[in-house]
Amino acid sequence: MAGRIKKYCGLASSWLAAFLGHCNLESTLRDSASPLRHLLRLSGPLKPAGFYSYSNTSATRIVKRHFSASFAPMAGTVEVETVEKDGKQYRLVKEGKATILVPHGAKIGEDRGEVQQVFYNPIQQYNRDLSVLAIKTYGEDILAKRKEKILAKSNKLGKNKKRKRDETDEADPSTETEPTTTLASDQVTEASEEQKTHKSTFTMLDALSASGLRALRYGHELPFVTSINANDLSKSAAESIKLNVSHNGLDDIISVTNEDALAHMYRAIADGLSKRDRHGNPSKSHKFDVIDLDPYGTAAPFFDAALQSVRDDGGLLCITCTDSAVWAGHSYCEKTFALYGGTPIKGMHSHEAGLRLILNAVATSGARYGLSIEPLLSLSIDFYTKVFIKVTKSPQAVKFLGSKTMIVYSCDHGCSAFETQYLLRSKPTPNKKGSGSFYKHGMAAGPPTDRHCQHCGNKMHVNGPMYGGHIHSAEFIEKLLEQIPNASPEVYGTLPRLEGMLRTALEEIIPGPEPDPTVDPKDAKHAEIDIAPFFIIPSKLATVVSCAAPSDDMFRGALIHLGYQVGRSHCRPGSVKTDAPWSTLWWIITEWIRQKSPIKASKFTPLMPGWKILHSAGLVGREDGAAPKEADSEMEDVQAATTADAQSEETAKKGDEQASSPSELELRKTLVFNDDLARLGRLRDSQKLVRYQMNPRPDWGPLSKAKAS
């Protein structure tokens, strides 16, 4: 050990002179744990060959981490400037319109060797850019609606007063005195009402603020915000936030608290319950328009308090969960169930299922209080999820939660097929008067699948329950995209990726069948489910049957040719969203094999997942000398398999009608894999978009958890 340390000191001392002009050696040595640690820190930028070979000591591990970060690509790096304030040295980090002072010893993303108190991770800038843009879009829209509502109410009251005044004037002509004064009084009243609407309050809670950067950006970049509460459990974090708030000149907007986030929210709930209005309803003055939850790990413990603390007339919850190993992995399924009330899916669409698990946890928590949720935008990004949820008090909407909650049966060890089972069903029923219909809620039919997959014969596993409605609002995403042209690249550093991911999310919304025109449109919206809850990847399907994969354009073209809708998912490149049943998907793959990618039948055995699929298509398992199945016979088999592929009466109605209709059978006979089909399935972009994140640098991702003090 002593020999190695001596060797390190010798290497470092040879570089020391070159760096004396670029750093404050005396102060760094004083603040460092030891002179050796500083020498190792100085040695990082030169990165001598062979220095990585010494990896048995903690000191060497520090050097290795420092090397890997120092020589990272430019994407995701941060320019750091050192400043002095109140006699202390700080590193200055600018993001958007906000600037934070990072104390010495705190992480800023590229220096992973130091113990952190409050940290800054540049990889999370996309998260913050998205939050600012989404809250800006939401805030402008909700404030405009509130203004219209107040003006409409004011106009209605004005008309009622005028009607009463006219009736009084007709009854007693002698009361016709000072009409000018009365008119002026009405105008003053209307003017005061308009003035009140212009001064509408908009409050926000950054419940787990850490460095306070999110709150600072909200204060700088959202002009309509009147109050922001930045809270953190760590005393050092709260002090850092106060320093940064003062440095940014936002003391009049941002208030800083140092307490447990749950205690803070429940205290606001208690204050609202103790101050009720004349109708006995809890006061809304203590509720927030927006609550941002961005913890280290899961946000599940905060769901209940946040739902009760946010406004129940359309308040917004911004939730980040960074525990992807839990909601997207199958190794900790017991932990997933404990946190989110459901089990995860193993397979290519695990991250999309994770989003639905989180949404279901929020929805079931809110339903206890008569709160309905509407997911505006739900994204799986890098190593975390980000969901924006609109919360509304609506006991009527809550009744539809059971029919939007699903169990998933997945063939995760075989062909990756899945079937969905909704817990309840909501069916339009004519009312007694015959003037319309209403939704009647009842028990759902039995399981849509056997214990074994009908396509490959492998075991089916149970996943969920999870949210089965749409995870995005097309209207909200379109409003977000309208903000992009006017957004400054200097403020939104990840603007290209923002636009690319938002457009991809918009494309993955597959419209369902038209609702019954006789039902209330509001109820019809509450009853909507996602007919294509998960994406598929053509190359993964080709792997099951060991054939060359069709191109994405070719696969999409085949689906469009057969009359199905197609899109793609923001979760993974090469993904395809479609409302086609699994029997149709496997028919396309086997037809691709038949036309373009022949396989060697001798390498398949009955125990392989692809054997049953290929055997049903007549591609393997035929007796010697037996002729292949006739086309008409194959169509009959496909039709029977497709009819048996029904997921439930509601979810598969459209798919079954298309799959069993003669028109689709005729279209299957005319399907030819050629350039024309690929052109049919090509998704043309008017501009090049950054749809999916590439690795910005080595070893990127979440930093280690901040230590409270």
TrEMBL record:
Catalytic activity: guanosine(26) in tRNA + 2 S-adenosyl-L-methionine = N(2)-dimethylguanosine(26) in tRNA + 2 S-adenosyl-L-homocysteine + 2 H(+)
Positions in coiled-coil regions: none
Keyword field: Methyltransferase, RNA-binding, S-adenosyl-L-methionine, Transferase, tRNA processing, tRNA-binding
Enzyme Commission number: 2.1.1.216
Superkingdom, natural source: Eukaryota
Ranges where the record places region Disordered: 157-198, 624-667, 688-709
Listed GO MF terms: tRNA (guanine(26)-N2)-dimethyltransferase activity; tRNA binding
One GO biological process term: tRNA N2-guanine methylation
InterPro entries associated with the record: SAM-dependent_MTases_sf (IPR029063), Trm1 (IPR002905), tRNA_met_Trm1_C (IPR042296)
One CC-aspect GO term: nucleus
One Pfam family it belongs to: TRM
Gene3D superfamilies, per database record: N2,N2-dimethylguanosine tRNA methyltransferase, C-terminal domain, Vaccinia Virus protein VP39
Keyword Thylakoid in annotation: no
Amino acid composition bias (Polar residues), ranges on this chain: 176-190
Similarity section: Belongs to the class I-like SAM-binding methyltransferase superfamily. Trm1 family.
Protein name as catalogued: tRNA (guanine(26)-N(2))-dimethyltransferase
Record organism: Hypocrea atroviridis (strain ATCC 20476 / IMI 206040) (Trichoderma atroviride)
